Structure formats: C-alpha cells, structure tokens
Amino acid sequence: MPVIDHVPFAANDHDAAVKRFENAGLPTTYGGRHPEQGTEMSMVVLPDGSYLEIIAPAEDADDPGYWPDHLAADAGPCAWCVDSGSVHATCQRAITQDIEVHGPLRGTRDTPAGERAEWDMAYLGPRDDGLLPFTIADRTPREFRVPDSDLYGAPISGISHVVIAVPDLDAASRTLTRLYRFPEPRTGHDDYYGDLAVFPGENVVLAEPARGPLDDRVDAFGAVPATVLLGGDVDGARHSYSLGDATTILDSRVRYVDGFDRELAVVDR
C-alpha cells in the first residue's frame, strides 16, 4: 500500500476550521490558494511529513472544484491521498483492475512564499466515492507543497490509519484487496463504527455503520473517511492536546480530539 500523504478536511469557513485545530493544540500553517479550483488551504504538518489539510472555498471564488458538496456541508474528512511515486503507473494498474480512473490531472497551489507548487494527481473510483484514495506525485520540490513540521518532538508522529465508512463492507474489502493485494482482513464490531475490517500491516480500516450519525454520513456522501487516527503516545498526548477519555477500537487504545465529533483521534503506536 502506498504511504498516506495527507487527508483533506472540508470546511465552509477556512478561518473557523483553522481555529478548531489550533484550539485542540494542533498548530496550522497557511498553505495558499488553488487558483484553478477556487479553494484555499492550511495544514497541520506532522513529524513524519504527512499532513491534515484544511480546505475551504476562497472568499472571492466561484464554485469550488474540490469536493464542493463536502465543503458546503462543513463535512470534515472528505478524502484521503497517497503518494504512489508515479501517478501514471497507478492509473494503469487501476485500469487493469477495472477500476474507474479520473486523471492524470495537474494540480497547483500558490504558496505564501510566492512559489507555485505543482503536482500530478488522479482520482481512483467514482468521483463522488471516497473509498479509494486519490494519488499524488510532486512536479516541484515537495517542500513547496509541504513545509517543515512544527511538531517535531511531539507525542504524535503521523497518520497511522484512516477509518473509511462504507455502505457495503464486503464489497469495499474486495475492491481494496483487488487493487492493492491487501491480506485477508480481521473483522470485528464497534458500537459506534458498526462492523469493522482491519487489514494487517495496512493503514486503512473499513467500517459499515448500522445506525446513528455515521450511518447518516454514509447516506449523505457514500463511502467517506470517518476518522483519522494519528499514531502516538495516547497518554502522553493528552498533556499537549485537548483529548477525551481513553477508549478502544479493536483492542487499540485511542483518545478522540475534542471538538471533532470523532473525526480525529490519537491511537497508540
């Protein structure tokens, strides 16, 4: 499985979303505007170089091109991105597996330093479905797109797992296994997430909710990220960030970040 590069959090108000992260103790860096897409972004850059992207419509822009429905709904995590090394090779592999591909496309962002970050990207699967990641490869130096982290030495290291809420657990498992040759998943159940599939050694967890707010989220958006799990020291992190009480997901200890409705958590490494 390629490495998770970042996870976008869709917001309808950029400044309010930034404040939410910073109130939790997570420092943000303004990243600039996507000129062709009508959006702007900030990011929480983690020590391992992965990041959480806060993306929102730019004030003077027309309809945004990136995840407009998610932005309008202030939906939080709306997609996930992997660095595959070669976008073209990833597209070719997906096509051989009869998976829908949108791309390769060219992305750009004008940074506060006056640089233009450029990258290749492609969406895998239906454009309105968040089960599969979109893939990215930098055209310009990566530091144009992702600055150094302000969190070196912090009790969190990077994105450990993304929990994807799906309408059909078995079908989603087969798709991921076919594309990435995942091992047979370990299954279980959680009162909030519903039925779970965890792939040993991989950083994706699938959840098929049966009821409640997560089921409503799937009804609204289809397959969509539900929770981003940051790897770290669960007990140590509570001294640096605003976290709730410890709980477990399939035997892993987690603390949810306050103010994020279970969209963001720290999990023991």
TrEMBL record:
Q: Name one Pfam family in it.
A: Glyoxalase_3
Instruction: Please tell me the species this chain comes from.
Output: Halocalculus aciditolerans
Q: Where is the VOC domain?
A: 3-139
What is this protein identified as? VOC domain-containing protein
